[in-house]
Amino acid sequence: MDYEKKNLEDTVAPSSVLTYLDPLYWNDRFAKEEHYEWLKDYSHFRHLILENIQPNSSVLELGCGNSQLSDEMYKNGIKNITCTDLSPIAVEKVQKRLLLKEFKEIKAMVADMLDLPFADDSFDVVIEKGTMW
Q: How are beta strands 59-62 and 107-110 bridged, if at all?
């Protein structure tokens, strides 16, 4: 699948939703983009996170991209977080950001949400913020 080569500064969304299935789209996008929050940032649903996720819960974040959701949850005491994304570039940037902030408990790894490398019941909570729309 070859995605349309558009300037990412000109548009957030590609012309076809099928482009989102192409890892090359994400690698290109994350190579150029430092931070983007799909849908809403943490402040809009912080209350839901804090009401429903215990500090000792293990959390899997699917499609972390360059969102700072895990950083914000960490600041609120939720530290057992595993971030996954299809893009190795996104994951590398997340790992560097977490290292700089000394958020050592958060793990980031490349994984396809349609074929996860985890056993059933590995996490208490799974968060997905924008990968399935």
A: unpaired
Alpha-carbon torsion 79, 90, 30, 132, what sign?
negative
Question: One digit per residue, pLDDT tens: the chain, 133 residues?
Answer: 444 444 444 456 777 778 777 777 777 777 777 666 666 778 888 999 999 999 999 999 999 988 899 999 999 999 999 999 999 999 999 999 999 999 999 999 999 998 999 999 999 999 987 765 4
Structure tokens at 107: 């793990």
Token readout for 9 is 């500064």
pTM of the predicted protein model: 0.77
